[in-house]
Amino acid sequence: MLRTAASRVLSKSFTKAPPQTIAQRAASTFRNESPFQRSSTKRSQILLLARPAKSSFYATESGLPFDKPDLKAEKQYGAGHLKPHPDIVSSESTTRHVFEARSEQETKKVKGALRQDFETIKDTFALTEVPRESLYIGAAGVLPYAATSLSTVFLASEIKHIHSTGQGWIFSADTAHQLLDWITPIQIGYGAVILSFLGAIHWGLEYAGYGGCHSYRRYLYGVVPTAVAWPTMFMPVEYALITQFTAFTFMYFADARAAVRGWAPPWYSTYRFVLTFLVGASIVLSLVGRGQIINHDGTLRNAVDYVEAGKDTQWIALEQEEKERYRKLAEEEAKGEADEEEDDDKKDKKKGEK
Predict the structure, then answer these.
(1) What is the pLDDT of residues 118-129, one digit of tens each?
(2) pTM
(3) What string of DSSP letters covers 307-331?
(4) Which of 34, 231, 271, 284 is the most buried (most CB within 10 A)?
């Protein structure tokens, strides 16, 4: 193959090694070193890393380290006298008050932030996007729950007042107890109905295909609250109310997540927040009202009393079982002894006949 001057220059450029970087040169240097030289180099690098930099020393204006102070400057400052500045330094300048006066600009910022928060709360509870029919019927559905809760608080206050003064405002102690025994199952039963209704909404959305069909995932949202709500009818009052409160809170988070996923209308999470807040407040009021009279009234028992009563019932049942078992053993022993005596008598008769 013929080679020209241009082809020779081009071939030299291809065969020429590329320039090495700093890292490559360092690597080649370390590859050519002996193990002893490598270890010594590493030790030197460690010492360099451990050595503090010059900029880490505290130095004065003259550039000397901090342990060699400028004595002349200290003498000069020591010979002088401090000048008082009452306008700048005073007893109030070094005091931080708990309640300090804000400037007009800071006050405007605080008022603006509070106004913005108030507008956010107002928009949240206004529920402008919620259909009017759903809003009115939902609010009406909360009224029975709130009425039973307020009645529980009033009756509890009536019973407490009777125990403290000996006389009630409207009802007697027996009447207040009887009304309380009627209202409590109504509140728990109505709560179970509401929870079942909240679960059934997801079945309706699945039937309508809102946000697509999600099969078992959305059907599960309708089954769980019903399975949790109805067993509370057989629980002690405090346990039932706390369980329903937890179920209502769980359903709110489930509904809010469903709205975010597009399984429910966008306004549904805000709507559910307001209703859940009202129902949760009613349950808390009922628990507080019943807690006021547990310590004053022996006929009204709390959850701990129910547990202790259950334990006592179990011990009584065990004692009865033990007594019954011992009685049966005693009867069997007596029967065995009687059988042995009869056998002995029969044997004696046979011997006498012989």
Answers:
(1) 887 777 677 788
(2) 0.54
(3) HHHHHHHHHHHHHHHHHHHHHHHHH
(4) 271
